[in-house]
Design goal:
The protein is built from 4 helices and 19 strands. The chain is α+β, with helices and mostly antiparallel strands and 312 residues long. The protein folds into 2 domains: 140 residues, no CATH class; 159 residues, no CATH class. The chain has a 9-stranded antiparallel sheet with strand order 4-5-6-7-10-9-8-11-12, with helices on one face. Strands 1, 2, 3, 14, 15 and 19 form a 6-stranded mixed sheet that branches. Strands 13-16 form a two-stranded antiparallel sheet. Strand 14 and strand 15 form a beta hairpin. The chain is globular. It starts with a strand and ends with a strand.
Length: 312
């Protein structure tokens, strides 16, 4: 049996639909509302290559961070560092669900390699948080291969829990460790997160999410269990879409009650009516969250953002 879909994150629909705990037939989501400010459908291509072409090794840090968007992150920031002999680019990309941050570091390497392992995000002074990483080198195509090939782009990608950055404002440096280590001034990362937060606030407000209550560093609903992937099963794939080999990315905005149940679903990134409706139906049928908490620790209504990728 083919893998039907991969869960990445989540988003919301238009009218309120009652949460059901019975069969999927009881959850009626004919045409979830697609928000006017919905993200455009994402196409193919390598977002890393596009990022790299924008930030291509000037000497030293240059001005403020530059915001960019890729297929997974509508609000991310990148900045160039390094020297003429050892250039580097650093990019920070918080997930829309506010639960993690992916850090990309790009440098030069003459060795073609691929690695995975356990790295870390370290604040000095402050804590060091373990985090998985992967790294690879994009070597330029040269034919015939010269005796002294040009260096390739060495990518190190570390994904850390957002709590790893809790002491950032009082730290002096931020170090990202994968197969190599990169250290930048903590104040630079603080400035980057401020730009990202402003970008996300505009986006959240346009989606009907109160950015004063939802965002980086605030309490947000988290899926019960390790992941939300169990909410989506093979039978959820619309037969017409599967037959036509249609897939795509759906981003949902979910209204989550103080009881952790999904109350409504809206679409912030559409893959078409059938896949939008199937995404909302599965989330409302099976979605269960640990609710957000206020300053006194009380459960409160909030929102969850969840992307789903459908693969025929």
């Amino acid at each position: 049996m083919k893998q039907a879909l991969t869960v990445l994150a989540f988003c919301a629909a238009g009218s309120s639909y009652a949460q059901s705990t019975s069969s999927s037939a009881d959850v009626v989501v004919p045409h979830p509302q697609v928000l006017p400010s919905a993200l455009p459908p994402t196409g193919g291509g390598d977002p890393f290559s596009r990022l790299f072409s924008k930030f291509d090794f000037p000497v030293g840090p240059i001005g403020s961070w530059v915001l960019y968007r890729d297929e997974k992150t509508p609000c991310a920031a990148a900045r160039n560092y390094g020297t003429e002999d050892n250039p580097a680019t650093v990019a920070l990309a918080p997930s829309l669900d506010q639960l993690s941050v992916t850090i990309y570091t790009i440098s030069l390497s003459k060795k073609d390699k691929f690695r995975r392992g356990l790295g870390s995000v370290a604040l000095d002074p402050g804590a060091e948080t373990r985090a998985p990483y992967k790294s690879f080198v994009e070597m330029p195509f040269e034919y015939p291969r010269p005796s002294k090939p040009k260096p390739g782009k060495h990518w190190t990608i570390v994904t850390a829990d957002r709590a790893a950055f809790d002491g950032l404002a009082s730290a002096q440096t931020l170090t990202i460790r994968g197969d190599i280590s990169t250290t930048i001034p903590a104040r630079d990362a603080v400035a980057a997160f401020a730009e990202i937060t402003r970008c996300q606030s505009r986006l959240f407000d346009s989606w009907g999410i109160d950015s004063q209550r939802y965002g980086f560093g605030k309490s947000v609903p988290t899926p019960l269990g390790e992941t939300s992937s169990a909410w989506f099963v093979e039978e959820d794939y619309p037969e017409a879409a599967r037959t036509a080999h249609l897939g795509g990315n759906v981003l949902m905005i979910l209204d989550v009650g103080d009881d952790g149940l999904v109350k409504a679903c809206r679409i912030a990134q559409t893959a078409g009516p059938d896949l939008d409706a199937a995404s909302c139906r599965a989330a409302m049928l099976r979605g269960r969250f640990n609710p957000a908490r206020d300053g006194q620790g009380r459960a409160v209504p909030s929102w969850a953002i969840l992307p789903v990728t459908w693969v025929p």
